[in-house]
Amino acid sequence: MSTAEPTRRVAVLGGGILGVSTAVHLLREGASVVLVTEAELASGASGRSLSWLNSAGERTSPYHQLRVCGIDRYRTLFAADPSRDWLRFDGGLHWAGAGSDQDTVARHEYEKAHAYDSVLVSPSSVNDHTPGISEDAVGTVSIFNPGEGWVSLPHLIDFLMEEFSARGGELVTHAGTARVLVEGGRAAGIETPNAGSFRADDVVVACGPQTPAVVAELGVEIADASPVSMLVTTAPVEHPAKTVMNTPRAAVRPNPGNTFALDHDWYEESITQNADGTYSIPEEVVNELADEAAKLLEGEPQLTAASWKIGRKPIPGDGEPVFGELETVPGCFVAFTHSGATLGLIGGELLANEIVTGRKHPMLETFRPGRFA
């Protein structure tokens, strides 16, 4: 007679980086996993994320430490194959608006105080640190963070899904808006309108900005500050710029295929919601963002917007990540954070370990969903 414990069955709701990462790490831990998505993989926030890998600026110490560990996991992945064009570590460049030099210096000093690699640069010295940047655009005082990088989350999700399939994970796409099944006060699976129900010992809710609404049906409040935002992908253009740039009028990062990904927030008031729940923005606003980005690049090349995606960007109400089991619904775990790219690998790893072992990880202690109760 076998005395082996039955395999733990986990249903993961969400096909973005947090859901996919958690699912793969659960499989590595020996669990059986069904990954359920409303539409396609990476069709939500992960498909329109600037995905800048960083812990720049000021934040709480636990959040900074978790982000640094997140970057470390990406460095391990990068070291395994530095030729990947969807994961790079070529630094980050930041400057603020006119008259903000004092704030920039204070940010640099703060970063240096906790040993975050930070260098003050001027327009005349910026290209000593990173190529292809227009000296005319750079702020009088800027910060270059050499250890930062970027990732294309759709490419990363495709990469992780190869392992997911090889380890026997079950993928269900186009399931529609799902809800968590609860029996006897405990999570018991996921119910979907298009694909039926999936029984499980535990459930992970990792569906980006929809996460607070999903757990609200369980009587759990997670404060939500998710705004509507846009990511623009340009047509291919040959240019030597390598770094991620965060500037007053455009955020820019390189992207596979000699393209650039563009983001910011000044245009948010130009976004309108349609009757079917989708979002629209005037094309001239998209082109204005592309023009602002071009000004940052040496030679000011023409940047043409090839495509753009609009949707809600997941941000918890207090700005801090949300990871862990719901106190009032045992067996239901949540992963909800603005820094989904930076925390994608480490967040999935730590949450999966908590689910399988039942032991809470100390690095997630301040990020529990119960803090909103």
From TrEMBL:
UniProt KW Oxidoreductase keyword: yes
EC number in record: 1.-.-.-
UniProt keywords, alphabetically: Oxidoreductase
Class of enzymatic activity (EC top level): oxidoreductase
Keyword Oxidoreductase tagged: yes
Molecular function (Gene Ontology), one example: oxidoreductase activity
Entry-linked InterPro entries: FAD-dep_OxRdtase (IPR006076), FAD/NAD-bd_sf (IPR036188)
FAD dependent oxidoreductase domain sequence ranges: 9-353
Domain of life from the UniProt record: Bacteria
Pfam families (UniProt xref): DAO
PANTHER family for this protein: GLYCINE OXIDASE (PTHR13847:SF289), SARCOSINE DEHYDROGENASE-RELATED (PTHR13847)
Identification of the protein by name: FAD-binding oxidoreductase
